[in-house]
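Progress narrative, Year 2. Work on DUF4412 domain-containing protein from Niastella soli advanced from sequence curation to structure prediction during this period.
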Amino acid sequence: MNLKVINVNAAGWIALMYCIVCCFSTAGAQETLPGEGNMSLNSHMPIIDMKGKLWSVDDTISVYYYKGMVLYKLPYQIVSNDKFGNLIEETAYNYMVRERGAEVGFLFDTLNAVNATKVKVDSMLGNRLSPNLKFYSETNDSLVRTIQLSDGKGVEQVYVSKVLINESYNDSTYLYYSESLNNFAFSFSTTFDNLMKRKLYKIRLFYKQRYSEQYKMNLPEREFAFELKALPAIIPDELVRLFERYNSLIPGKK
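Result:
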């Protein structure tokens, strides 16, 4: 994850407690052929420290397609201290390139790296782009509203939980669909895409404020959000050069 907030001590990471990890630590989307629209997967997950303070963990992965290849721009955080002991953080990026559908690719440490390391795609992406986002329960979620959005192409659905079976269950779920994003090669749910004949591109999971019996503390109101966003069709020159550098590492490719 791209940690936007890092000044929480180890004892404070109640954030990834049961009520969060159970459903949403596997947030991501599944790649589904044959779409080739450049896109980013954006996720926002609130975390709670031992004092009940709310922080956030945000991650954005950009995906580009070029001549049968795929490039993933993967952010990570570099954390250091200045001379006064204050934490300094900056975002850096790794870049993984592979053939479309291949199980292995090459990882470049920086945008200008000449050499790369051969890696397994699943190991590298982990749960950041996975098919395991659990946002719907057929037996416990009830559809209460469907709204046609003002653009005429989008739809919003609202579900509520019938019973909060345990602390992992959110109170309501908002799903957003769009016809204009059907060229995306990723999906949160092909079942929902096919049902609505639109791409499910955004998921919002809302928790009302509640008391946690497990942690003996009040948990504040919070929202998890996962969204697929379109990127420009024209790929930046520096990424095209990285695609070409990848080609030079593959025997027989030009």
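Residues 45 and 57 are 5 Å apart (CA to CA). Confidence is low (pLDDT under 50) at residues 1-27.
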